[in-house]
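Standup notes
- HV: blocked on the assembly model, inputs below
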Amino acid sequence: MNAVEANFDGLVGPTHNYAGLALGNKASAANAEQPSDPRAAALQGLAKMKALADLGLPQGVLPPQERPHVPTLKKLGFSGRDAEVLRKAQRDAPQLLAAMASASPMWTANAATVSPGADCADGRVHFTPANLATHLHRAIEPETTARALRAVFPDSRRFAHHAPLPATPQLGDEGAANHTRLCAEFGAQGLELFVYGAGGEDEPGPEHYPARQTRAASEAVARLHGLEPACCHFARQDPLAIDAGVFHNDVIAVGTREVLLYHARAFADAAGVRQWIARGLRGRDPVFIEIGEDEVPLAESVASYLFNSQLVCMADGSMRLVAATECQNHPRVRAAIRRIVEDPSNPVAGVEFFDLRQSMRNGGGPACLRLRVVLDPAERAAVNPRVWLDDALHSRLSSWIHRHYRDRLVLADLSDPALLDQSRGALDELTQLLGLGSLYDFQR
Ligand code: SUG
């Protein structure tokens, strides 16, 4: 058995809602205050996981987090019993309550940066949870994320867990969404491409929206993971793309093995990125699939989330694109996908579309919902076995969602103490289902 690239998708939490919290994320802003359907959201995500598992791909599950997060509300001065804390927060600072109630941990591409053992000096798989410093609702994720990753990847002989970087603007880190690994074979030493929005003072940044990933953070992660400097490249995002709604690089580029699919406006210096990959990749010729502005304009790329598709490797070595159904609504995007799939000079041989509308309406597409972890057979065997999605776990999770999730949520519901109780009840059961121990603050 060879090393594989496994996907670990975040289960959507019971408080999934639309609060317009994410700066520079067009979908989040456009859908602010709309009612959400947490049950549909969770089932849509689970259906994607099931379909990928059915394709024979290793598929794991990562847990949602406890929301609303009462401990942080207390740190912010809301006192009393839980119901009172929620009521006061809703009355005096509804935006803070919304931030404490987001189901944003579902987007596990932002959970951590992960380097495969083959790239790391000590041969272990390295994880650095992202500090998600630019947004309050996301900056409260890393502590529980770190616990969850340790519970899923427990064996310290094979897995190395770092602390999140200090959460300051100079070190903003949004994890794997700005990190792409290319290689000839998953188990061989690869190239790690880190993409940042904020670099040195001489590098122009976006004008309207925050650059969430800093170069300093990416460099720190590369050092922590013990990566070979010659195998790392730090590429700047095109600031115009950030201002057009590309808040993470995975909104405009996706790569795996030897393939990099990207929009011409993804990088400030795309030619530099290609040259570096072409020079460094050993054992396979790189395949660059560039989509230009004339083929799919930037705005349409953002609206369809074409580049937030997953690229998955099948057992026969061919690849498939795992895309959001929104791509089908844009004729130019459909045509671009057809061109990619029909072109025999790249390994992409098919496409699967998924309805992920609930997550998409918050700016989270197929690739946002998964964290990739390359695992050799021994590492794969060392993963907590309960999190691998098979038919049995799928049916248990599906019944769990039906029993615990509401099918409609509006912002006024976030202070409902019954929602807090339901969510805690659901998560308590989930930690048993997935064998995660006492993960949440309310369990400790
Ligand atoms: O950080 N949306 C997330 C979406 C993250 C997508 N992830 C990747 N591209 N990898 C974000 O912008 C919206 C929450 C709200 O508005 O209620 C939100 O946080």
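- HV (later): unblocked. Residues 4-67+102-293+355-443 form a domain with the L-arginine/glycine Amidinotransferase; Chain A fold (CATH 3.75.10.20). The chain has one domain: 4-67+102-293+355-443.
- Next: hand off to the docking folks.
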